[in-house]
Structure formats: C-alpha cells, structure tokens
C-alpha cells in the first residue's frame, strides 16, 4: 500500500521512477568522433557480433559467420539454418554460435558439432565461456533478438542468465526477471552482465539464491555486449536514452496506441540508425535546421563504446555523434593492438589503434 502511494506521488511530482532526467555526457563520456575517424572501415550488411577465433576476427551477419581475411575481405566460415544472434569463443579452437530460434552450436575444438538448447530460451543476446562452462544471456522470454524495441516499449523484464555445462549439457538459471540482459562477462569468479532497460551493469552474487548486485547504474544509453580489454572492459552502448522516450515509457496508454497504430520504424523509440526518413519523430528544429542534422541533436541513434575499469566504472569512450556514420554499436573487442567495433546501424566494422582510447577520457 505504501509503495503504491509513493509511486502515485512520484508520478504527480515527476520524481523517483517517474523522473525523465538523464545523466550528462561529460567526463569519461564526453562526446567525440573517434568512431567516425577510425583507421579502417569494412562494410558488411547485417553485421552484429564480433569475436576472435583461431587468431582471426570473426563476425556474424544474418545466417553466416565470416572471417576477416588477410586482404580485408570477408570470407564465410559457416552458414546456418537460422539467423545468428551472437557468437563467442569457447577456447582457442572452439566457437559457440547461438541462433535466433535458441539453439547453441559449437564449431571446432573438443565439442565440435554439439548442439544445445536451454529451456525455452529463444532470445540469446550474448555468451561468455570459462572452461567447460558457457554463460548465456537470454534477453526476453517473449520477444526475439530483433524485437528489442518491442520489448522496451512493453517495459518487459523477463530476461535471464544461465550457466550451461558443455560436457554434460546441464543448465542452471543464475538470475531471472531481468530487463533485457544484453552482455555478459566472466570477471574472476563473478558473472557480470549488462541490463539494457535498467541502464546498468550487474554482478551475480556468488552463492546467493539468484541475488544480484549493481556495479554501475544510470548509463546515458542502453548497454549491450561486454568484452575484456587490458585490466578493464569494453561495453557497447547500442542506442542512446532520451527524455522523450523516458517520458513515453511512463505513459502506457500512449505506448499501446503507438504500437498498435504506427508502423514500427516510426515509433518514438531508440534505434540503431535514425534520420533516414522524414516520417521519423523529432524532425523539427531540435534535430534538423535548414535540412541539416545538428551534431549535438537529441537523435534516436548514435555510436558509443565505453571503457570500464576493473571495478566497472567508466574511464573513457569512443563515440559517433548524431551526424556521424557509425551508429548502433552492438559489439566491441580488442585484438592485436586494435580496438574493433561493430556498427550494426551503419553495417560496418571499424578498427582503431588502441592508443585512441585516450579520447574522451576524464581528467
């Protein structure tokens, strides 16, 4: 009763969960153009997830996994019966491939050819391996990997984190009731994941009955996949938050009508790439002036990668502003002295020399 009264007062006063304020892009998250000024760019339609397999860069795009060949061309190393939702190295010789219908396949190494299925999971967004254990993030129990906008607009929280033993096939649910877990990493003995719709980084508490601990909260965007880098971590932020979207998420009647009556490309919702149609929302003076997109506009898409230290606190970032051409970063890794990011919004993989990390760092 008290909680219900408190929420009602918050809605009237616009505070607490009803507030639509956003953290500022400052300090470690200060805007820059590092992603647009990358040292190299390799286009690939539908590119989504990136990993290192047998010493080479591999990426998923549609139903295929590609390797970046010596000449810079994309070379297919495997095609599957359904679209690939994510990939992850198991060891130096093995690659785990998750499909949109929920199957997990192992390519190469000791478990080559094995196929796994975790309960009713059909929205595998990220994976991370440690020995014989494969840790899996299932974004939603009701929506598929490509239906993330729908899941957000439904204010859904049905995601889960699983541990799969590759030898025995035994699966264990570590956490549930999550708002689109989109990235997962193994930090020592801990399992850490990003929770997109709650804009935070979370640790699964060892030994607890599905207990979690928030490591960092109130990110200015929707966090995605995680990968290790030096003594810290890379975090892909696939879309920005905005006050307009935050307001709409608190208006269920409007959201329901919008989803029922408006074509999805024109929803007032974050996107991997925006600004390509005059029918999109926010085409007035706040975003465009005299037909030109403002670089500082509150657009529905942008590019952002955040470097987190060992305690998962932001220390630096690589970005593409509203008028940039490297939006919708869904995956990022460090390999052979380069930082390599996947821009699904612009269908391109970009590479930067790792010293570029200094851009956007706080004093």
Helix-strand pattern: HEEEEEEEEEEEHEEEEEEEEHHEEEEEEE
Q: What's the number of extended β-strand segments?
A: 26
Main β-sheet, in a few words?
A: 4 strands, antiparallel
Low-confidence segments, ≥5 residues, pLDDT <50? 359-363
Over the alpha carbons, how many angstroms does the gyration radius reach?
A: 20 Å
Mean pLDDT equals: 90
How much helix is in the residues?
under 10%
Distance between the termini: 46 Å
Task: Chart the SSEs and their pairings.
Elements: H1 2-13, E1 40-43, E2 47-53, E3 56-61, E4 64-68, E5 74-79, E6 84-89, E7 95-99, E8 103-107, E9 115-117, E10 124-130, E11 133-138, H2 148-153, E12 159-165, E13 171-178, E14 181-187, E15 190-195, E16 200-204, E17 212-216, E18 221-229, E19 232-240, H3 243-248, H4 252-261, E20 288-289, E21 292-293, E22 303-308, E23 314-320, E24 329-335, E25 338-343, E26 348-353
Antiparallel strand pairs: 1-26, 2-3, 3-4, 4-5, 6-7, 7-8, 8-9, 10-11, 11-12, 12-13, 14-15, 15-16, 16-17, 18-19, 19-22, 20-21, 22-23, 24-25, 25-26
Give a description of the structure:
With 363 residues, the protein is mainly beta. Helices cover 9% and strands 42% of the residues. The chain is built from 4 helices and 26 strands. The chain has helices spanning 2-13, 148-153, 243-248, 252-261, and strands at residues 40-43, 47-53, 56-61, 64-68, 74-79, 84-89, 95-99, 103-107, 115-117, 124-130, 133-138, 159-165, 171-178, 181-187, 190-195, 200-204, 212-216, 221-229, 232-240, 288-289, 292-293, 303-308, 314-320, 329-335, 338-343, 348-353. A 4-stranded antiparallel sheet has the order 1-26-25-24, with no helix packed on it. The protein has a 4-stranded antiparallel sheet with strand order 2-3-4-5, with no helix packed on it. A hairpin with a 2-residue loop joins β3 (56-61) and β4. The longest helix is centred in the N-terminal third of the chain and has 12 residues, at 2-13. The chain is globular and about 55 Å long.
């Amino acid at each position: 009763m008290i909680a219900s009264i408190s929420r009602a007062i918050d809605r009237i006063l616009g505070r607490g969960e009803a507030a639509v304020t956003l953290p500022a892009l400052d300090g470690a998250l200060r805007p820059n153009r590092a992603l647009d000024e990358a040292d190299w760019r390799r286009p690939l339609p539908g590119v989504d997830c990136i990993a290192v397999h047998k010493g080479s860069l591999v990426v998923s795009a549609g139903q295929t996994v590609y390797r970046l060949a010596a000449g810079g061309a994309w070379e297919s190393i495997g095609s599957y019966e359904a679209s690939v939702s994510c990939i992850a190295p198991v060891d130096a010789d093995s690659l785990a491939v998750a499909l949109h219908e929920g199957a997990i396949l192992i390519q190469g190494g000791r478990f080559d050819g094995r196929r796994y299925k975790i309960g009713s999971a059909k929205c595998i967004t990220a994976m991370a391996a440690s020995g014989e254990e494969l840790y899996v993030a299932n974004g939603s129990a009701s929506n598929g990997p490509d239906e993330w906008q729908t899941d957000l607009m439904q204010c859904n929280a049905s995601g889960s984190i699983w541990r799969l033993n590759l030898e025995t096939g035994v699966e264990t649910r570590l956490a549930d009731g999550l708002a689109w877990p989109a990235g997962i990493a193994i930090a020592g003995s801990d399992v850490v994941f990003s929770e997109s719709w709650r804009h935070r980084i979370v640790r699964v508490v060892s030994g607890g009955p599905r207990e979690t601990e928030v490591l960092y909260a109130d990110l200015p965007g929707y966090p995605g996949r995680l990968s290790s880098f030096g003594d810290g971590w890379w975090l892909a932020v696939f879309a920005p938050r905005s006050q307009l979207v935050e307001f709409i998420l608190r208006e269920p009647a409007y959201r329901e009508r919008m989803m029922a009556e408006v074509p999805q490309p024109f929803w007032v919702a974050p996107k991997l790439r925006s600004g390509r149609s005059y029918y999109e929302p926010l085409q007035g003076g706040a975003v465009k002036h005299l037909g030109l997109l403002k670089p500082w506009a509150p657009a529905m898409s942008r590019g952002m990668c955040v470097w987190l230290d060992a305690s998962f606190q932001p220390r630096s970032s690589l970005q593409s502003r509203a008028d940039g051409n490297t939006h919708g970063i869904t995956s990022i890794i460090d390999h052979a002295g380069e930082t390599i990011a996947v821009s699904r919004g612009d269908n391109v993989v970009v590479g930067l020399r790792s010293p570029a990390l200094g851009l956007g760092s706080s004093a």
